[in-house]
Amino acid sequence: MILRKLLFPALRNASDRINGFAEKLLLAVGCAISMILFFQVVARYLGSSLSWSEEVGRHLLVAITFLGGSVAYKRATFIGLKGIGSKIGAGMQRAVVRFLLLVTLGCFVVITWFGVAYTLTVWEQMSSSLQIPMSIPFAFIPLSAVFFVIHILADMCDGKIREEADQSDSERSRDVGVEVPPGNGIQVPEKVR
Question: Range of 127's domain?
Answer without folding.
Answer: 2-170
